# Entry
Amino acid sequence: MRYGNTKKILVTGGAGFLGSHLCERLLEQGHEVLCVDNLFTGSRRNIARLLGDARFEFMRHDVTFPLYVEVDEIYNLACPASPVHYQFDPVQTAKTSVIGAINMLGLAKRLKVKIFQASTSEVYGDPEIHPQPEEYWGRVNPIGYRSCYDEGKRCAETLFFDYHRQHHIPIKVARIFNTYGPRMHPNDGRVVSNIVLQALRNADITLYGDGSQTRAFCYVDDLIEGFLRLMATGPEVTGPLNLGNPGEFSIRQLAECVIELTGSRSRIVHRPLPPDDPRQRRPDITKARALLAWEPTVPLDEGLGKTIAYFERFLTETDHG
Ligand code: NAD
Ligand code: UDP
Ligand code: UDP
# Structure
């Protein structure tokens, strides 16, 4: 039995980086959480602290298969997010995005509940417009190595809007820009985890290309606050809404900042730029500011400090030092 305003909330991909933080915040708010994950990139370690909470339930399940549960709200985060992981089995990535979205939308339709979609800045592809407002349709290669993810997420957005128009399901679509923080996957090849681990091990820091390409990095706590505020909006707010930190840095600047914060003896080395790697990316968050009264508050050096502390503990605990 549940009391007051507390809900039972489904989080798919709940054992992953963002999902585990979201589950934690929802529990803090007094909700019950059903975490559904196939543990492809997520781990029990990410949710270890939550497993002892009677209001938290973990279900190992692949969202490409139907799911019949009873919940009051759905956050759909299941999908590998880093190029290394989503290119490992590209067909499964596309299925997770598309069939996973269909199943979760079918569930939302049957239960008549709100559903949140973790979309991505990758729907903009390698953009000709900078920074990217939500109205921009993007420039995506439909047949490249990133397409399973980019086009999968674009198709998921299409499905969300069609279910909304056709079946009147309340939807909340967030386009998430690069996010970092504790519990990022150590081997997913994303730039923050790579560089932090390399710096802590005094190993060579790998910059792809000349390191002048830019990204804007959002600390995970700021992003999750944006999720909660978006979910709390009225039915007229569907998104898509950009969520990210508008502070733009080159990858070289990021590496220099991590070297300084860790006091590392690492050298910077260069590796070839991966195909279709966007030159620059930064969110235009005008809409999120107006609709959610939200903007990131954690500066890069502070967020990196917390991330470095996490990976230091991780290296000690797992003996991967
Ligand atoms: P993550 O890889 O840590 O988490 C994804 C989770 O989904 C993992 O726990 C994984 O095991 C699970 N999963 C994958 N396929 C599944 C399936 N078929 N069935 C059930 N579970 C499955 O990645 P993350 O960074 O936490 O990303 C979460 C979501 O946010 C993803 O949808 C991603 O596309 C989106 N996103 C993340 C970022 C970012 O910077 N982290 C940026 C844009 C979008
Ligand atoms: N579905 C699900 N859980 C539910 C309801 C539906 O997993 O509680 C899945 C179901 O397998 C279906 C998909 O969601 O394939 C889409 O549902 P919808 O009702 O839109 O389609 P239909 O069942 O009419 O094909
Ligand atoms: N990158 C890098 N060194 C690394 C990993 C990534 O220079 O060890 C670069 C990568 O080429 C890209 C940027 O950092 O330009 C961000 O990469 P990431 O995979 O984190 O995210 P995405 O490309 O999806 O934004």
In short: The radius of gyration is 19 Å. The chain has a mean pLDDT of 95. The domain at 8-178+218-245+278-297 is CATH 3.40.50.720 (Rossmann fold). The pocket of uridine-5'-diphosphate (ligand 2) is lined by residues 66-68, 102-103, 106-107, 109-110 (CB under 6 Å).
